[in-house]
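REQUEST ID: PR-0412
SUBMITTED BY: lab tech R.K.
PRIORITY: routine
TASK: structure prediction, single protein chain
INPUT:
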Amino acid sequence: MPPILVHRSTMRVIDGMHRVRAAVLKGCREIDVAYFEGSEDEAFVLAVRENISHGLPLSLDDRKAAASRIISSHPRLSDRGIAAYTGLSGKTVAAIRRRARADAPESAPRIGTDGRVRPLTATEGRRRASELIEAHPHAPLREIAKAAQVSLGTAHDVRKRMRSGLDPVPPKVRAADGETLPPAPPRRTPERLKSLGAMVESLARDPSLRQTDHGRELLLRLRASVLTPEDWARLIAAVPAHCTEGVVEIARQCAETWNRFADELDGRPALPG
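STATUS: complete
OUTPUT:
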């Protein structure tokens, strides 16, 4: 039999009580022991996890009571993390947490079983990603996602919505998180477009682009794609009514092409330093 697990500071058996009783019944005076160093709360979490993985399983009520105690002692541990320790579903743990915290809503991020800190809500993560994109527009999305503690797909969607002048948090996400605050004001797209023109001119001064055929081709295409508010007004007025549908379709297709180009470029592995 494997050694029993004992909390060293209190000498309480964490896992193996039935083995202890069996040894006593057999008249044994010794038993192999592995000691756990940690707090009593940590010992309790470990005891719950060990007792749902083997031996006599805990009842549903016991597991719910254990989840409630772990929520109290480890409030930053994620619902899924507690579910993994107690053998419950994440939704069940979330319901227990809501009842336990009804009068004290949380605002701190939570920690998963992998040790990573994650935002409490999807809204919070998207807001944080939008602030990072605003402050560091040239940063790779992977860095934005890591710093904001969101997925790469979420970071991409946030940037896409910001470029379209939309709130980075879709209404359905705010509703799912129970947010009642009004959405953030949309970004001022015309000002963004003006800054894009300056960015292109800055790239044009880079010899690694300016002095190669493909680099010059890229600069020409970028210059042609950046439209200022004045360009918009002038070009929209030049489109006859009977050509509108075709121009709209071409513009949308070009936008999708540039998005795919940006995604592939952004996902390219960084060159070794």
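NOTES: The two ends are 52 Å apart (CA to CA).
REVIEWED BY: pending
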